[in-house]
Specification:
Length: about 260
């Protein structure tokens, strides 16, 4: 697909009305304003229309014109216009010259060798793995570990994050069970021959002629077999709480615990 490039002559655009007419009568297109000329063009346009003295709707027209012609986004133009209006000097690029990159010390072969070492030893800690590679080079004279023998522990972990390492060192682990808090663990009571540990259960009497039957609540002490029975209309908080309070108060000893079969009691 060919792109139409038009040489823009903005010297005839002197008023905001002309600027608005230009925006209404042109479709989005690429103009021949290079990256080096954009800053000078923005500065020249802002000074020509007195951007700092304009009202907000008029500033919006100027920003739309600059966005259409310069190719910058609205966020970039907002920052550049702010810099141009706060300083009397023209806009200048603030990019720094690229710094020289660091020399590559560890090759892809070193990364694969590290993955192989971790596979043999089960991915030990960084200091332990470093000692293994130091011994492989110094004690067993393996030339492949020459560079890895001097690696720092911190950079060893960096090599483990590289994609080449991740592709060759895949670790499968089992799903760890969820450790529940003992306070929420449901298990049968261990009374140790002491009264006060109850087993609570509910029994539905059954329905008759379409009418819902009542529920019988049984509470039995594990040691003394002392039993309390109560009846409630429904298994819900509103019905159970008063019944259970009265039922528990009927026991002649201190209650130390209770157990239910996963019911709502």
């Amino acid at each position: 697909m060919q792109i139409m490039v038009i040489q823009l002559n903005d010297q005839q655009l002197r008023t905001l009305e002309q600027l608005q007419a230009f925006l209404d009568g042109t479709a989005p297109m690429d103009f021949t304003i290079t990256g080096d000329e954009r800053y000078a063009f923005i500065t020249r346009t802002l000074r020509r229309f007195g951007y700092a003295r304009l009202r907000r709707p008029q500033k919006a027209v100027v920003l739309r014109f600059l966005e259409r012609v310069s190719g910058y986004s609205r966020q970039q133009l907002t920052r550049l216009v702010k810099r141009a209006t706060e300083r009397s000097a023209p806009l200048r690029k603030r990019y720094r010259a690229s710094r020289g990159s660091f020399a590559t010390v560890y090759t892809p072969d070193d990364v694969l060798l590290l993955a192989h070492t971790d596979s043999l030893h089960g991915t030990l800690s960084g200091p332990a793995t470093k000692k293994l590679m130091e011994r492989a080079f110094a004690l067993f004279q393996d030339p492949g570990y020459e560079r890895l023998a001097g690696i720092s522990v911190a950079h060893l972990y960096n090599l483990r994050q590289r994609p080449a390492y991740q592709r060759h060192r895949i670790v499968w682990t089992r799903t760890c069970p969820v450790v529940l808090c003992p306070i929420g663990e449901r298990r049968a009571p261990s009374p140790n021959n002491q009264p006060g540990y109850l087993r609570v259960d509910s029994v539905h009497q059954g329905d008759q002629d379409g009418l819902k039957g009542v529920y019988h609540i049984n509470a039995v002490d594990c040691v003394t077999q002392y039993e309390g029975v109560a009846t409630c209309e429904r298994i819900s908080e509103n019905y159970l709480i008063p019944v259970l309070e009265e039922l528990l108060c009927s026991f002649p000893f201190v209650l130390r615990g209770f157990h239910t079969d996963n019911g709502s009691e």
